[in-house]
Records
---
Amino acid sequence: MPAAQAESFIRALATANPAPETELIYHDPFTLLVAVVLSAQATDAAVNRCTPALFAAAPTPERMAALGAEGIGPYIRSIGLWQAKAKNVGALARDLVDKHGGRVPGDREALEALPGVGRKTANVVLNIAFGQNTMAVDTHIFRLGNRCGLAPGKTPRDVEDMLVRRCPPDLLRDAHHWLILHGRYVCKARAPECWRCVARAFCNYRDKVLAPPA
DNA sequence: ATCCCGAGGG
DNA sequence: CCCTCTGGAT
């Protein structure tokens, strides 16, 4: 996709929130980081349901580290992969206390060194909590990009670089967040809801799955 | 019954 | 590259 068209594509997606009911409820670095770690393979609703009690019990890295995997587990048993996540979050909080003065580091290298934190999670935290020019390319964005011919045959990392390069600076925050939601709730893997997609004009598959259910 | 999905490990 | 973890969605 040509540069000018890519910018239009990003602009279209960045100006419409497709799932206002699942809006991100955490914005400070620590709760955001933990919430994102818990989000893999779980619905936003499930994460938003169980995290308030968890953060009431452990609002800081110190308290979370003290809770440990055994103490964290009971709060998150309703979401997928909870055993691994409890372990990761406990170890992550321990690392924050021991290696980062109880603060969430604001650089990629340190974030990705934390247990359970990969490139995608680091990019979300860097963008939303630290205001940096990053884009988290998860499989939702990757699929959306592929269906729209954003960067045919390219790797997720290539797509990430392209989005960072093409996204107008004033739209960075919204583009990052709304792109994920579009892939997750509109341009879904199984039953995409093309009839309410703001990127229809760019999509190569729209004619095949455009109609709403009867 | 099968797919979803990010991180980590083989 | 492949596989596993797990509850939820379909």
---
Amino acid sequence: MVKPSGKTKRDAKTGILDAADEIFVRRGIDGARMQEIADHAGVNKALLHYYFRSKADLARAVWLRIASSFVPGIFQMMASDLPLDDKIDRFVEAYHAKLMRHPYLLAYVVNEAARHPEIVGDFLSAERRRAARRMIRKLRAQIADRTKAKRVAPLSAEQFLVTLAASCLFPFAARPMIASLLGLGPKAVDAFMEQRRKDLPAFLKRAIR
Amino acid sequence: MVKPSGKTKRDAKTGILDAADEIFVRRGIDGARMQEIADHAGVNKALLHYYFRSKADLARAVWLRIASSFVPGIFQMMASDLPLDDKIDRFVEAYHAKLMRHPYLLAYVVNEAARHPEIVGDFLSAERRRAARRMIRKLRAQIADRTKAKRVAPLSAEQFLVTLAASCLFPFAARPMIASLLGLGPKAVDAFMEQRRKDLPAFLKRAIR
DNA sequence: GTCTATACTCTGATAGAC
DNA sequence: GTCTATCAGAGTATAGAC
């Protein structure tokens, strides 16, 4: 408002973040080149170091933005009073929608989390840790209700959550391997994923029925 | 036999492969340094280029050795006449045992498969593709038998296989995230995984019951 | 805030002696 | 086959003009 350069500044910074996002996700942090990011953003390489001191800082900023964009929403939904079956539907739907559009995202996240564990911690603020605990507690109650009513073997809420996430996410991370293994071309893999989006919720509900 | 250097040669080459395996898996291909691999193998950097022309070639050799060491065995077991439930037990058991000892392996495989899809193709020879098809065909028959007998909704063998793999493998790839999310230390995560090894087969069997 | 030019470091790769 | 020495290129990062 006061500074006329305010808008421009944010645009340049955001532009760099957008470009870095794409290049990091495509090549990994180690494989990415600052020059390529700069080119992709249409700015000079020096500007990257002006806004973000180093490559590591830039990578951290990109990571934080990615994680912040959809993890908190999922936490909240999973901690809500929604019936368990609806949560499964929404979880599957949300991640399929997200990852269909960003196929390399998950391989990136998985890899960098393994390689640079500290940035995972950076993302999980105290507030988010509390949100995670709320989610687990709520899920535990819902699963307990169900197993009590139907006399099924007890199931840990944590294990269920991990299995749910695994079933949705892993196929996107393993997409190239699935394609090779099943002998599918790019379009056939898309169809396979689309089918999965439809079938998976029923499969998971059956397991906790 | 004829050459007295035969044994030494193989040892040096194997030593380099062992070292490269460890460093690549720990740092990723892009993050790994030829110097570090050479140091770890106790040989000179130049020797790496003598046996493997370039870093890319070395990475390919490492990948082929890793994949060859346990994928074909799994294919064969899954294509056998073993009952479906036993296959689930063995699959879960085999991968948990393997990955407990090589925690970074999966993040590496997933990442490099996404980044360098061509090396996945290198691994899947025509013979292995046939083995994969045999496995799928057998699983499809077994699942069909079961759903016919118990009147359950039909389930694609491919989808089931992916879900099975996802449930077993993803937790290892996502280990750092799971730890952060659930607030577990290294020992607690190990316990979580151990619990998972026990509970997962029952969960999966219930879904196709 | 944004650019040009450049310093400095590191890495993969090769040449050549033994 | 294995080593020492070295190079060319690429990379991150900074200095300084505008």
